[in-house]
Amino acid sequence: MAKEIPYKIYLSENEIPRQWYNVRADMKKKPAPLIDPRTMKPITLEAMSEVFCEELARQELDDTTPYIDIPEPLIDFYKMYRPAPLVRAYCLEKQLDTPAHIYYKFEGNNTSGSHKLNSAIAQAYYAKQQGLAGVTTETGAGQWGTALSMACSYFGLDCKVFMVKVSYEQKPFRREVMRTYGANVTPSPSTTTAVGRKILEEHPGTTGSLGCAISEAVEAAGASGGSYRYVLGSVLNQVLLHQTIIGIETKTALDKYGIKPDIIIGCAGGGSNLGGLISPFMGEKLRGEADYRIIAVEPASCPSLTRGRYIYDYCDTGRICPMAKMYTLGSGFIPSSSHSGGLRYHGMSTVLSELYDQGLMEARSVEQTAVFAAAQQFARIEGILPAPESAHAIKAAIDEAMICKQTGEQKTIVFGLTGTGYFDMVAYQKFNDGLMGDYIPTDAELDAAFTNFPPQP
Amino acid sequence: MAKEIPYKIYLSENEIPRQWYNVRADMKKKPAPLIDPRTMKPITLEAMSEVFCEELARQELDDTTPYIDIPEPLIDFYKMYRPAPLVRAYCLEKQLDTPAHIYYKFEGNNTSGSHKLNSAIAQAYYAKQQGLAGVTTETGAGQWGTALSMACSYFGLDCKVFMVKVSYEQKPFRREVMRTYGANVTPSPSTTTAVGRKILEEHPGTTGSLGCAISEAVEAAGASGGSYRYVLGSVLNQVLLHQTIIGIETKTALDKYGIKPDIIIGCAGGGSNLGGLISPFMGEKLRGEADYRIIAVEPASCPSLTRGRYIYDYCDTGRICPMAKMYTLGSGFIPSSSHSGGLRYHGMSTVLSELYDQGLMEARSVEQTAVFAAAQQFARIEGILPAPESAHAIKAAIDEAMICKQTGEQKTIVFGLTGTGYFDMVAYQKFNDGLMGDYIPTDAELDAAFTNFPPQP
Question: ipTM beyond 0.90?
């Protein structure tokens, strides 16, 4: 007889994965290499190490080693909030009256409120190992900045966060969490960097952008005389690697109960959560051991996979970072106002872009009012108030469960619930008041953004 | 050999307690009965049932039944966020360099952000069982209102929350969480009740008080023609009873690893968390089976146990609720501004008051800047950003651990971490900016408040 499945499958602490899984090792056709815009050639470890910690630069470029050991001090930190529960959404299933079985991997049970902490602590660890004084980064919605502040505080590293000015002003609570963890938070653009001053001169009233904040953070690290490095919370291969702890735990929990998922769903901004969740499953798929439907869900307002082009593009609007081949809307694309700040990135992880291009995963875009309706439904019946980003995956999971209801199929759906929405109540208020709209770029707007693509290598 | 103790001790779902424990049953000298101010005699079940659900009124008055079954639908709901982890504070111990072992029972892993949900769901369940249309309540800081909104949403009950006006305006995010769960939130005082209109007439600019909100909520329930009842999140015996799930789980987890605590610490406002945490341990103490030091920690700004009087007093400033014999500062006492809204109640649970009076537990008061310093220290090393209320217990736990460091004793300290501080960032900001002060009432201020005591029965 099958074991009864609890509401929450918790692994024990000694089941925390000891290795990350590098899905690139199992890809026959690898993601295209990052290009150094100065040479227009694949970037070298040396060039990467000017910006990133050496060990992280190595992880970034390594597309052959399948398993990479997680250092022991990281395991100790992970024990404070991991393993994360895999939850059976019994109440939601009952409410939907669907034969589908729905599971979600919940990454919100830590103070940063999201999965971002998984990579933040790894990046802080390697920075500490290298003897650095601190790290710099940018943050938009603030989840990454919060996670990095926590990680740096734990390892006694200085943490300089450039926070997009509009968020700095509109999300003072996120800012205060970072400050409580000892981070130095600067609204961007600022007068502390050359690029910031230039932007302020050209656009005196600007409220900032992620691209500008990235440029300031990179400049600040570079100006430190080598004692700081820049760190990033998504998009990069190293980040996806660290986030595979999500997917490995998920697979271990499912295997324990003999559950084989049919559909795996994740929201996709830069791709860190989705990549981390699906990697071990994608590995089986690549090795021909199993098959799964894998669905990336992105906002209709920033549809890089579903409406972007697969092409070399800059990773930042300041054009000082390496170029990556990815699905992109153009580094000059400015998504219309949306409340899922974590999904407002113009490009997509090169790994996910390549997997999508090879037809190994699906993608769909959803509109934000539908996303908030799903978020509210989920909050009321499953008790967890989701981050708007996470709610993209909820929306798709509900849609798939309703298809099962029509067809009568008992499919098993697993989705990633990346975090909580406690700092997103301005958006919920807009939804509660019926004042939320949908923003879908026109073809003409996208075509205009596409004219920004750089010359191809 | 002793089992290695993990960072987090999780019980399995089938170890969720099936019964609450009623500590009054083991008290030789019972808490003094509630007095009906209309008759000046012990309140009857009938009179109680006019205000509260019948089953809850029964629990309120029952001081002889030691164990009370938890209804099955509640167990199902508890499974969504319980058992709550008992965490070994390894990192904090190491940082303090103390021989003490520190554990905390963490109740913040649910969207309401605190232990309040344990009783909210029970009260909503009994209201539903009784066939009511909904419930009314008041909320100050908003944790109770949030918890009740979630509970009512789950059982399909209407939920009317009177929220102290100053909080309604200053804590819009709490308000929006409640609205997301479908609650009707009214700033108090309001024009929707006679008592609200009277107060607005007498004090046109008032920003409200908990006492006034209670009075409005009770009036609104009374005016419903019997289809609504009033519910309360602390102080009452029924609430302490429901919260014993905290203590029972804690004891089960400790027993599993053969751990015997020396000191048990909890913050104390109305007493629901502290009472729930300590009940099973106090039971052993009352039955002569074990001994523990039990410490209630209250804010220096509202020191009911440490500086109040043990006397019959009104439970609300509107003086429409029953009178209780309790440690109290007087129902007219207005605590100076403090950021631990959940601890700003003039009185203390009758059960805890009686236990304290019998010398079975200790009490101490702490100042808020010291509390926030402890909160920040804890957040940085243990990763959880605590609610200011919870941080009172952290402060006392750290103090006790530091005494162990001096004496070299390896004591085992257990404290209740009641919730998270995500909606308290205004207070953290004040602390981060060095703008937080301490507020300790003078003896003259307390003496003035004491003149408010009603005639004794």
Answer: yes
